[in-house]
Amino acid sequence: MALDPETREQLISSVARFVRERLVPIEEQVSREDRVPDDIVQEMRDLGLFGLSIPVEYGGLGLSMEEEALVCFELGQTSPAFRSVIGTNVGIGSQGLVMFGRPEQKDYWLPRIASGETIASFCLTEPGAGSDAASVRTTAIRKGDVYVVNGTKRYITNAAKAGAFTLMARTNPDNKGAGGISAFFVPSDLKGITVGKPEKKMGQQGAHIHDVIFEDCEIPAECLIGDREGEGFKLAMQVLDRGRLHISAVCVGVSERLVRDSVAYAVDREQFGQRIADFQMIQAMLADSKMEAYAARCMVLETARKRDAGQNIAMEASCCKLFASEAVGRIADRNVQIHGGAGYVADYAAERFYRDVRIFRLYEGTSQIQQMVIAKSLIRAAG
Ligand code: COS
Hints:
- The chain is an alpha+beta fold.
- It is 50% helix and 15% strand.
- The strands form 3 sheets. The protein has a 4-stranded antiparallel sheet with strand order 2-3-7-6, with no helix packed on it.
- Coenzyme a persulfide binds at residues 124-125, 131-134, 178, 233-234, 237-238, 240-241, 314, 363-365, 369, 372-373.
- Coenzyme a persulfide (COS) is lined by residues 124-125, 131-134, 178, 233-234, 237-238, 240-241, 314, 363-365, 369, 372-373.
């Protein structure tokens, strides 16, 4: 643990209070307006949420993975769109730099990312490279002191607000595989970068994804993360190992919120002359949801502790992501079921969450990719 128990408790309880008092009351408004208000973003900055995972020497909170998971359990208790505001700074947008950046890159960018002054986005996915992340077609060709970048990145979270991108591009077009890819940390205001319009999505209104188009964009050679070309795919995979755990922790938070909503509705709603919570078929749904939320919580904490102890958790992170994201899908579905007709009506949170959680099974690796990672790891271990 990075924090002493008292400071940790204070952080977690202030995040819980912020969620309860400031975020939950405006969930519906954010969904309707498709926008998180600026004063809320400022409060997130003041709470230090943009810097959860940035080392203390760069102005972040420097949380351990376990502590980050505990914060995500709280932050997940409201619309996941709020988490998205800070999500890329805490996770995939910054961690390549934290893990592999050169000192001068870190000195310049990390304090800005930690404070929320700079939003950092992660540019891996392309129109033709999603699950097959090693097939990136965007090129970055070295010409003197610059790399010339050409290509399109797709569904990039927070791209329109980003001050910088962690960019994966092919520096060696002769190597079509993972080894031809390098990672860069690129300011977003360079000539030749265009951000597309926000996509219309199924859920999580208030969080936005865009295309990012690079056209003969000249980026200074020192934007390369680390000292060597060809390390970008491995960097992306290690960033995703961690990101998958972070998303799993968010899934746990949302699951716990939905269990609470299900119980609240079941004890309030009456049918056949009694509250529906007294019917065993409703009880079975409540119990299954609680069981799955609890199992996911235990998995995430166990894996986070292993990562904090320096172990390779690539396989376990995929186990967490697979289980927690599928579980929250089932829990959101049961929550709708328990709400009956009201669960289908947009006046209730059940309908919104049902749509919001669908993405968890897709981004940072689909459930099928997690299955592949787990199975490959088992088979490799067996020789
Ligand atoms: N940590 C470190 N290195 C890793 C790694 C990890 N977690 N996973 C793979 N690598 C390394 C491998 O060791 C291999 O290195 P060597 O060539 O030196 O042996 C290299 O990366 C290529 O690995 P592999 O052959 O397993 O790559 P594949 O092309 O088969 O792809 C999957 C592996 C499918 C797991 C990967 O492409 C993936 O995660 N896809 C999903 C991407 C994703 O999450 N997209 C969402 C968009 S980002 S929001």
